[in-house]
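Weekly sync notes, structure subgroup
Attendees: PM, AL, DS (notes)

Item 1: joint prediction request from the bench team. They want all two components modeled as one assembly rather than separately. Inputs as received:
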Amino acid sequence: MLPVTYFDGQTSRRYAVMLELTAGVWRVQADGVDRSVPMAAARLSEKIGNAPRQLHFEDGAYCIILDHLALDSMLHAAGVKPRSIVSGLEGKWRYALASVMLIVLFFGAVYQWGLPWAARAIAERLPASLPAMMDTQTMATLDQYLLEPSSVSLERQQGIISALAVLEPVGNEELPEYQVLFRSGEKIGPNAFAMPGGTILVTDELIQLADASHPNQPQLAMMQVLGVLAHEIGHVRHRHAMRQFLQGTIVGAVVTWYLGDVSSLLVAAPTALLETRYSRAFEFEADAFAVALMKANDLSPTAFADMLNAMEQHYRGQDAGHDETAVPSDPQWLDYFSTHPNTQARIRRLRDLSQDEVRQ
Amino acid sequence: MDEKKPFSFTGSGSEYFRIWIVNLTLTILTFGIYSAWAKVRRLQYFYRNTWVNEANFDYHGDPTAILKGRVLAVILLSVYNLSSGLSPIVGLLFLIPLLVVLPVLLYKSLRFRAINSSYRGLRFGFSAKLSEAYKTFLLWPFLALATMFVLVPAAHQRLRRFQHGSARFGASHFGFHAGIGGFYALYGKTFLLILGLPILWALMFGGGFATISEPMELMADTEESGAAMLGLLMMAIFLTFILGALLIGPYFTSRLQNLVWKETTLDAHRFGSDLTARGLFWIKLTNLLGIVLTFGLFKPFADIRLLRYRIEHMWLESAGDLDGFVRDAEEYVAAFGEEAAEMFDVDIGL
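Output from the run, pasted for the record:
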């Protein structure tokens, strides 16, 4: 005998009744109710946590059962075995722990392989007009707030563009479509950027830096600039900017959805952290592309490595002006969190790649 | 002689954690198919642990119906994505019919949820004219946009009136009596708070600006001190945003729930709610910290804490006997509306 609450399914009236299970028949009685229902004609809801269970009868009437232990022993005495697998899984912490591990593995795999794959697939299927539009927008914003018109002579600009144009692609692969724009970078310093639609932005400061490191060897300076541009063409070739944008958007959307409404801006931190690894891979990929392209055209990849070195010296020198504690080389663990891979590591790689050629 | 009967919630975080994690695992292992069953289990756990006047709620959604809805919604979404991938114009051609059917989907979704909810053995119900659905979900949002958001509070009031005013319990009708004025007052106060935050910030950071800018101007070139000022300003804006979301969000949510339930009736019975901005802020803040510090594992605990807080600050003011409600003819609705609406991330909410 188990005290339960009974509702008749017709009105909201509450009956306090006693429930019994004998010889395969449920019996509900007291409070003016007396009915017997064979077990086959009644449906007992599955156990979900410690929420009350419901014993439903076919006419919509049901009992609310709060005492799980008493119900279980009643069922046990009647020879009924609990058969819900899911309830069993939910009931034990060890299954919860196993689930946690499985889920961590799953999301690790999605992050490692699934997301990059999806971003690449989407990037390849986007209509060309969209990235082109993004480039136009980005350039308009940059021109308005950050950049000034280039002071590099048109001749020099043309020289660089035509030197790029005669580059032979590696193997039978074609070079992607790109467009080089020159601007005075002001606060950005010596740098170059590849945008989703194939626009490559080069700052005057980059060209000046190349010139300054080889004052009397215009050939070498040119080779350094070409090295950087080959790297940027590598970004364009592999749609890195678009993939980066897509991956960032997806990660951001998932984190926002998960954290809920409060925290749209706190999302920025985990998103940025999760993205770093991707951009490191992208830099290495673009480096490899640049090295292959330069080798195929009898240019020395070492020039590119030298250029990176010079750029790093430049930025480090700038930092040192403010920061006395600047260390000579980034420690490894810090490298893991930086958006760009440790430049020294990249330079080492570049030199290794160049030497392969010598050995062959 | 009204009697105040509080709502209570008996779910627990550690229990829900196991339900949640098993749901997630099975969903992953079945490539998403289990998600429909997971949803029913989750809602059943929530409903069955929600009590008022010595009885709990229950949820009866059919997982296979929900699965069908999800499959259809996924197909619809992929068709839309593929077509918009071909060209934006084709995508637009798909978007327009979608906008036209969206009010119907949302309406069906509200019906599905209501009809599959029960209390004391009686099902809830939801019925309204389709024209009302179009006015609520299409006309008013459009008007709100067209008037540069001046009509947003009015549109919000229509939405809540539609949601609460069209609902039934058994054969009894819910009523919604909040006028537009209450919504405008709430939005107005929230707007003032948003305006007030930067002023507060200026007061707090203003001193900092002054102390930093002076030596900067003496020592370094103006560009440098400008950059430092800009950095500080960005920092202030960032903090304003986060604190704004954390502080003003709970204010708005709590006052809205209180306003909406205070003006909701069922026959002669009334409802009430006394959430406070401070209480909600504390829960949201600690939830956020918990989720971040546990790499997301605190999420089910956070859900339960928020739900408990929101439910346990509500009550029913009964005007006499609560045993007299009777059942209404039940109707069957396909799950398509609800699930499709869910896929498009439209939160129907409490």
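Discussion: The mean pLDDT of chain A is 82.
Action: AL to compare against the crosslinking data before next sync.
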